[in-house]
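Appendix C reproduces, verbatim, an entry submitted by the partner laboratory led by Prof. M.T., so that reviewers can inspect both the input and the predicted structure.
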Amino acid sequence: MTTQDTTTQPTTTPATPTDSPTPPAAGTARYAPEHTPRLAWAELAPDVYKAMVRLDAAARRGVDPTLLELVKIRASQLNHCAFCLDMHTKDALAAGESVERIVQLGAWEESRHFYTEREIAAIELTEAVTVITDGFVPDEVYERAARKFEDADLVQLIASITMINAWNRFAVTCRMVPGHYRPGGHK
């Protein structure tokens, strides 16, 4: 006789199958319930949220959208931000990014051949800016990025990296729930 896990699915059901993981097959264990968010920070601090949205729009101006999603995904991986990973992987896929490149991003150093030299420079810079506790952004990382980007473009890239790190920190601290985002929902 087998026992079945009777844990129930979350009470909120996403509208489309792409909004949450595929349900388990009959007779298998169910997913754990969703956690409860701590704070609805955007509602509680609307002026901060609106300022972040404006700053984000200014930061990404001129940054290649594909590159921008790779940067956002990589920073979100490093920051363990499930909410932003959900959002930016869905946006990247909707924009035509390949599953393969998204999957390999977590191990990009061993799968450099999936990315252009410019993308590698941006990903490497993203890691250095995101994991700033390891020290300053190393000169060699900055110099590689500076060789691939004009000064104005490099500033925009740095601003975009800074913004995703700020978004990650709000989402992680407030425990925003992943799984319900629809591509293009926060443009």
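Residues 151-173 form the longest helix (23 residues). Additional entries are available on request from the coordinating office.
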